[in-house]
Specification:
Helix content: 40-55%
CATH architecture of the largest domain: Up-down Bundle
Shape: globular
Bound molecules: flavin-adenine dinucleotide
Largest sheet: 4 strands, antiparallel
Strand order of the largest sheet: 4-5-9-8
Low-confidence stretches: none
């Protein structure tokens, strides 16, 4: 286990500054435009791919840092640029994480590059778990996967909802129930490769925030994929199902494994939005004059900024700790991963709201970015496990009881 240090090494500083340059120079100038357009920002993704910020190598570089900090540092900088565009860039990595959590090495070699494509030939990927009647309760998925032994194919049927890049992705990773009687333990993950018949986009959602990220339903109708698309392979699945039927403990559920690994990363994005709002409000408060003095000279405003900064710093410490614990395989004895996501997302909502207050009327209109940051911040308390679900995870960890 490595020592925990808040001192970034040279590689991490270089990474941070490089990603910050992209966030400031490429993302910030177009953030409002893509928020209004509510479309996937293809030119930004293309530019990111050219620079090496969108792609498998970038992701591999982030996850291979033994301190765990590279990933959260880079994500904070990207989200400081714009949270919606960040998700447009990172949606594919959610699917890649779903593949890495369950795939054999051969499957990783085949599918991971296809999640990103290459400059000039960009590919997107989507990770489809949530359903209309199964959001927080991922154990109750209704999407079915049935094995057709004669053709060595899996047949998928069901509806997924709220899927980032859903229906526009080249590759979808779909979590489905193989044996509904086993609930969460009867599920498996499947790759639906590009060009597979039977998968289509349903409704595209119009959202409150992160509007540069595409969110839609995915409909699966007699969608057939080859046997090799079952992540982890049939043998491993059969063993797992047999253990579950005997009532023996099994490895963690496919979907939960992915969510657990990505929670500090969500917290890091919340940090980026919070920092953007804090910095903007601080500068504004020094310049805006009322009653013959800068508004920051009033304690009411200065103290707000103090609380915003303290919340942000505390959230960052929790996120960095959780990222370090994950990378060093330190046991999460108090749900520290969930705690970091919960605290950072709620901090971002509060900090962005206070930023609007500091800007007054100017904070409430779209000519200034803080209302967008507030709208964007709210998603972090909802997806990849709501704040309530994070609290459940922490409550169960600290109590050892099955808190409901
Ligand atoms: C923009 C966006 C992008 C998304 N991207 C993806 C994606 O790419 N892939 C994907 O699979 N999913 C995605 N999601 C889905 C997201 O993960 C779910 O919305 C989330 O898990 C909550 O599920 P739900 O919306 O069904 O809410 P519900 O589960 O119905 O929850 C409703 C409310 O009840 C509370 N609640 C539920 N159960 C409990 C309990 N036991 N105790 C206390 N409170 C409880 C919740 O906290 C919440 O406040 C996305 C969602 C959004 C909005």
């Amino acid at each position: 286990m490595g020592d925990f240090s808040l001192q970034l090494n040279e590689d991490q500083i270089t990474l941070r500054d490089w990603v910050h340059g992209f966030a400031e120079g490429v993302m910030r100038p177009v953030a409002a435009e893509w928020d209004e357009r509510e479309e996937t920002p293809w030119p930004v993704i293309e530019e990111a791919a050219k620079l090496g910020i969108y792609g498998l190598d970038f992701m591999a570089n982030l996850v291979s840092d033994p301190t765990g900090l590279s990933g959260v540092i880079a994500l904070e900088e990207l989200a400081w640029g714009d949270a919606g565009i960040t998700l447009a860039l990172m949606g594919s990595s959610l699917a890649a994480a779903g593949i890495m959590a369950n795939a054999t090495p051969e499957q990783m070699g085949e599918w991971l590059p296809q999640c990103y494509g290459s400059p000039g030939d960009i590919k997107l990927a989507a990770f489809a778990v949530s359903e209309p009647d199964a959001g927080s309760d991922v154990s109750s998925l209704r999407t079915r996967a049935v094995y057709d032994e004669a053709r060595d194919e899996w047949v998928l049927n069901g509806v997924k909802t709220w899927i980032t890049n859903g229906g526009i992705a080249n590759l979808h990773v779909v979590v489905a129930s193989v044996d509904p009687a086993l609930a969460g333990r009867g599920q498996a993950s499947f790759v639906v490769p590009e060009g597979t018949p039977g998968i289509r986009m349903g409704q595209k959602f119009k959202k409150m925030g992160i509007r540069a990220s595409h969110t839609a339903e995915v409909v699966l109708e007699e969608c057939r994929v080859p046997g090799r698309c079952l992540l982890g392979g049939k043998e491993r699945l059969d063993e797992r199902l047999a253990r579950a039927r005997e009532g023996k403990s099994s490895s963690s559920q496919a979907a939960m494994a992915t969510f657990e690994a990505t929670r500090p990363a969500v917290g890091a994005q919340a940090l980026g939005v919070a920092r953007a709002a804090y910095e903007y409000a601080l500068e504004y408060a020094k310049e805006r004059r009322q009653f013959g003095r800068a508004i920051i000279e009033n304690q009411a405003i200065a103290f707000k900024l103090v609380d915003m900064k303290a919340r942000y710093d505390a959230a960052r410490l929790l996120v960095w700790r959780a990222a370090w614990m994950g990378a060093t395989h330190t046991p999460f004895t108090s749900g520290e991963g969930s705690m970091s996501k919960m605290f950072a997302s709620e901090a971002a909502v509060k900090i962005t709201e206070e930023a609007i207050q500091i800007l007054g009327g100017y904070g409430y209109v779209r000519d200034y970015p803080v209302e967008r940051w507030h709208r964007d911040s709210k998603i972090f308390t909802i997806f990849e496990g709501t704040s309530e679900i994070q609290r459940l995870v922490v409550a169960r960890s600290i109590s050892g009881l099955r808190i409901q």
